[in-house]
Amino acid sequence: MSTAIVIGAGPNGLAAAVALAAAGVQVTVLEAAEEVGGGARSSEAIVPGLLHDHCSAFHPMAVGSPFLHSLDLDRYGLSWRWPEIDCVHPLDDGSAGVLYRSIEDTAAGLGRDGTRWRRIFAGPSARFDALSTDIMGPVLRVPRHPLTLARFGAPTVLPASVTAQAFRTEQGRALFGGVAAHAFRPLHYPMTSAIGLGIITAGHRHGWPVAAGGSQAISTALAAVLDDLGGKIETGTRIESAAQLPPADITMFDLAPGAIAHILGDRLRPRMARAFRRFRHGPAAFKVDFAIEGGVPWTNPHARRAGTVHLGGTYIELAAGERDIHAGRMPARPFVLVGQQYLADPQRSVGDIHPVWTYAHVPHGYSGDATAAIATQIERFAPGFRERIVGQQVRSTRQLSEYNANYVGGDIVSGAKDIRQLLFGPRITLSPYKLRVPGMYICSAATPPGPGAHGMCGYNAAVTALAELAR
Known about the structure:
Structural class: alpha/beta
CATH architecture of the largest domain: Alpha-Beta Complex
Helix content: 25-40%
Distance between the termini: 15 Å
CATH topology of the largest domain: Polyamine Oxidase, Chain A, domain 2
Radius of gyration: 21 Å
Strand content: 15-25%
Strand order of the largest sheet: 7-6-12-13-14-11-15
Number of domains: 2
Protein name: NAD(P)/FAD-dependent oxidoreductase
Number of strands: 16
């Protein structure tokens, strides 16, 4: 029987392990932490019984993941819960851009931008399941649905600033800009439309659900599938050098490129080693979890029903903040993402005390404390918020990288999403998962299709490894 070692038990490492085990490979996963999940972990915090997601929280890409869907993870305890409203981007005048799963409901709320919203998203959303088989894999290959991919792909090369100009209202521009800002890139850069268009399209097809019982449920379900297939997981096992790697036909790394270069040393070809060591990381997240009595008192009523709330003001203000953090400057009003997962999954609350998940975009490796800036941004759109805080837990950029070594400098999206790294990962190649060392592969979110709990980076890498093993 062929054997495989997978280093790292985040969603991609677990997905790779499951795909390999399902093909009859004997798999062992080695995880440095004491529990599996990487960024898809959850735990009680602040108040006993109050459940917080550690990083990954809402899952428009995971719920529609072709690989996860194939596993029937509901049999292993994973179920999805949807908020009434996916996302709200409030403005200072009390209005907001409101994103529903329904395109028609979203368009109706955007007034004169409704027709444009419908024109941009209706077609791709209707064809998203076919489209996802192409956009969730490596770029340089023959697509299964070339015409559908071409229609979707052409606008993605544009800067988000150009796409935002399609909308005439402040609400429409801010709503699109806030989703595009998930790329952690200045919004006037090429291809920053790709993230916004991709997430919104996926959301209109599948919504922005949470995992019942926390994002840990995704990781736990994948681990249970692996166990059923005969795979093993060893936690508390940190690999720091090639000498520690057990012999195996396949070795898969769910790690940041720099960590792989460190472990393999001169086993990597010089050109590959240089590319991995020079892999660029982007701006960071500064995370604060709050325990809030009675929920957040948003001025805009839609925000009180939304799973996600984006706080960045107008598109112009939002874009200025993203330029600042990319340049290493901390803006006075950073872009803040607020998660109210308990609205879809009430078991996360304790009585009238609710978990509120937040993070701000900050410069890479930011050493300051953004807690007050986050609270101020929330208070700006929800006067009286501070009076409802029962407790809080902070994870700085340094603490995020200690929590998960893949979050280098607090970079939670696994690398700067410039054109090259967004499309290809650490290097331009026909096969982004191969390390050019026999039997060795990278399967982390630094490879296509990128971050998220969808597991497709791991699955794609496993398919590549199995094809080579069969030769």
